[in-house]
Design a protein that fits this description.
Two copies of one chain form a homodimer.
Chain A: E1 5-9, H1 13-24, E2 28-32, H2 36-44, E3 49-50, H3 53-63, E4 66-69, H4 76-86, E5 92-94, H5 100-108, E6 118-120, E7 141-145, H6 152-164, E8 168-172, H7 174-200, H8 203-209, H9 212-217, H10 225-232, H11 236-260, H12 266-279, E9 283-284, H13 295-304, E10 307-308
Parallel strand pairs in A: 1-2, 1-4, 2-3, 4-5, 7-8, 9-10
Antiparallel strand pairs in A: 6-7
Chain lengths: ~325, ~325
């Protein structure tokens, strides 16, 4: 089957990697990047990336390309206005780290009929086109929306793109996605920042003694601050809930240290949950097909239980 | 110069790696391990490790070996009784993760005249002889005590061993060591455990979406719980202080999320401290020699400012 074409808006680390991976998988690809520096770097690598959003989107409309929004959250509203103006009928997805706020913006611009949200769970502490690679998503989980009202055609194209980029697809609705990533992506960022500050509170002596546990625990604090805020802050409600849980766990450990010199049951609990993570078995969803009766609800329920989609046949 | 001999008590990950590294550096080495399984594994790899503590220590006394205590904190008191009984005049060090409680126990057993504390800042989530390697300490910082009253001969032998194992030596007094490692070693353990629990609170969906930030942030939660407790809990006071700082940082971020949907200044602060850590320059202490006037106090002050010892000449 001939592959459809893919138009990526915003060719930073994630968007740029989608462009590269899609091209490597045989899609016709092109993209837009606001910064001319970034666009030029992509062109120098042989990719068709331009700063003229109208031209880029008119081409998408003409080709019925799948549009992938890869801009950070603060730039979303403006880019959706452009999509609405120049390519309102294209299938549309995004790779932004929250889903409910993106879906709300998409609805506001009346683009929801052909929209299916996405979120590839991959990244590095780097950013920009220079950090993008064609294999960033290989073996990664790629969350794809199964929210009520999703349509089969755009959904199928988004899932196919994710699979062609080497990912496995986790079907999930927006609100549940946002609560999950608050815990396993946004909270790790916040804890890494706090650890970096608390560690440095010990001065050069402490930093000079720091080894693997501090290095790994603060790794993502090396991410550009604007990017971290753009990733975490749109998910404020779910992140606050995850932070409240963490504050309870740490306060409890702190109180145990005070009263009896132990860390309470935190160490056993943390160990057993890390083992659970290490030994988690993904299982393949094979019996639910897009368009089947109740397909969205059934996929949602399968995703909650750890099910993934590995192919679409 | 002929190398002195080294006797390691407790041949787990750290002690076993000291034994291997010292042997590789040309020391005559032997050791003790309480568990016969561990001792047998070491012997199978060609190392002279025995379960007879009296015999092992008598040999140390006869050879004036440097004794390295590598048992976890809960086993320290018993092993010091043995040292006191069978080899009270040997130079003595340890590789335990806190220093003030070890020094107190050493004083209680009247072994302080020949004792100089040590702490190589290296490890993995694994434990036991099977995880030990000769190059674990290569490039690592190795904290060596410069507490008032330390004597030149044992101090020099401990520093030489650390250097021969490939480490750089950070001179530090016990209380300052303990406050520093609370922040860059014990706190990372506690945060990793809390992150593992809070992340798993999102169920299999969240764990299935987890990627690099969660994996790295929880890595050390895979360490055996007994070992984590033995590392962190003897440092309760300093760890509580570091935890209090962390709780303040996280509560402040949480309050900002509630009132204005931002994380306050935590992200900028964390980024700049991580950059500080990444760009920290060690500098070489070259002008202070053991036995010089005020050598201990001058080494302490140099260590506070990021100075390290790379050779002893």
């Amino acid at each position: 089957m001939k592959k459809s074409s893919v138009c990526v808006l915003g060719t930073g680390l994630i968007g740029g990697s989608v462009l590269r991976a899609a091209a490597a998988a045989g899609y016709e690809t092109w993209g837009y990047n606001r910064s001319e520096t970034g666009a030029r770097a992509a062109r120098a690598d042989g990719f068709d990336v331009d700063g003229d959003i109208a031209a880029v989107l008119r081409r998408a409309a003409a080709a019925d390309a799948l549009i992938v929004i890869g801009v950070p959250m603060p730039a979303l509203d403006s880019i959706l206005s452009d999509v609405r103006e120049f390519a309102p009928d294209c299938p549309l997805t995004d790779v932004i780290s929250v889903k409910a706020p993106v879906a709300a913006a998409v609805r506001k611009h009346e683009l929801d009929a052909r929209y299916v949200g996405g979120h590839p769970m991959a990244g590095t502490a780097e950013s920009g086109w220079a950090a993008s690679t064609a294999d960033l998503f290989r073996g990664a989980a790629w969350a794809v929306g199964v929210d009520p009202g999703s349509h089969v055609d755009p959904w199928t194209r988004v899932v196919r793109l994710a699979l062609d980029c080497g990912s496995v697809v986790v079907p999930v609705v927006a609100a549940e996605h946002d609560r999950a990533v608050a815990r396993i992506s946004h909270l790790p960022h916040v804890l890494a920042e706090a650890l970096a500050v608390a560690g440095a509170g010990g001065g050069d002596l402490a930093l000079g003694l720091a080894a693997g546990s501090f290095r790994d625990g603060t790794r993502v604090a090396a991410t550009a601050p604007d990017l971290v805020r753009a990733i975490c802050e749109p998910n404020a409600t779910a992140l606050r809930e995850a932070l409240d849980d963490t504050l309870r766990l740490l306060s409890d450990a702190r109180d145990h240290l005070t009263t009896n010199g132990t860390l309470g049951n935190l160490i056993d609990a943390g160990y057993s949950e890390r083992v659970r993570y290490d030994t988690l078995q993904r299982w393949d969803i094979t019996d639910i097909h897009p368009g089947d009766h109740d397909w969205l609800e059934r996929l949602r329920e399968a995703g909650q239980r750890g099910g993934v989609i590995r192919d679409l046949t």
